[in-house]
Amino acid sequence: MTTDKPSITVLGLGAMGTALAGALLSAGHPVTVWNRTAAKADALVARGAARAASPAEAVAASPVVVACLLDYDSVRDVLGAGHLQGRTLVNLTNGTPGQAREFAEWAACQGTDYLDGGIMAVPPMIGTPAAFVLYSGSRAAFDRARPALDVFGESVYLGEDVGRAALTDIALLTGMYGMIAGVLQSLALATSDGAPATDFAPLLTRWLQAMGGWAEAAAKQFDSRDYATGVVSNLGMQAASFDNLHRTADEQGVSSELLAPLGRLMRQRAADGHGHEDLTGIIDDLRKDNA
Ligand code: FVH
Fold it and tell me: Bridge-partner residues for 114, per DSSP?
């Protein structure tokens, strides 16, 4: 079969790399794959992917190389020997902004155009409208790779600062883990009298959806540094009722360790004279630079 679509190499066939390579195959790209545990390529090879015997062979096969490995150390292990001259490297491995910047410098020394990325999807979402992927770094690399990258989900380019995608990715994951912490605590509490979690979950979903607009309202307050206007739920009130979250957990024999840090910050800020404001001002206390 011939195709005018560019050939793409995918390094790393864990759950996510397999989904990425599968989406590229479905979109008609010639795909070359490599994975440390070679057997993980079998299903993709059965669908038409080419199996490379080494990272060097995989990199040689395509102008655009997508890496999706466990962490930056594994990317270094796989690409450390080089062979990247003239290639466009798109690294979709989770990492920090500092790691992305360091890796971009290393890639530049290899003569490689580098794009860093953060995938905002779980593997089954890849190739569906629900998926989006953050990119930052070389604009030329983004433009070159984009027709293939768009196969994964919506491509969101955040600019030439190569650390921006990782920072945004980690900030989004932070929001997600905050929500997960809340859901875990909530389910522990709601089931502490023997009720099934599934009876309670629809109410929790409804309540979280009703509060879904809060992030954007908080962002507006934070950007203006005005925490006192239009407050509907002041911090003093919230700090007092938050204590009931701890008391109820105690009464029900449930640990409230997931809640403790937020309660402490709320009480401290109220004690510092901000009880009449919204709790958004806590962001100032979290920012070590206080800017
Ligand atoms: N899966 C998810 O829900 C998230 C969604 C958002 C993005 N993350 C990030 O994607 C990276 C890969 O995640 P994954 O889900 O594919 O992870 P695994 O299934 O555990 O596969 C890990 C692959 O990395 C290979 N690997 C690990 N260490 C090395 C090494 N030293 N040298 C070479 N390869 C290495 C591993 O190979 P093998 O164990 O199969 O031989 C897998 O290919 C990750 O950054 C997520 O944070 C996923």
Answer: 89
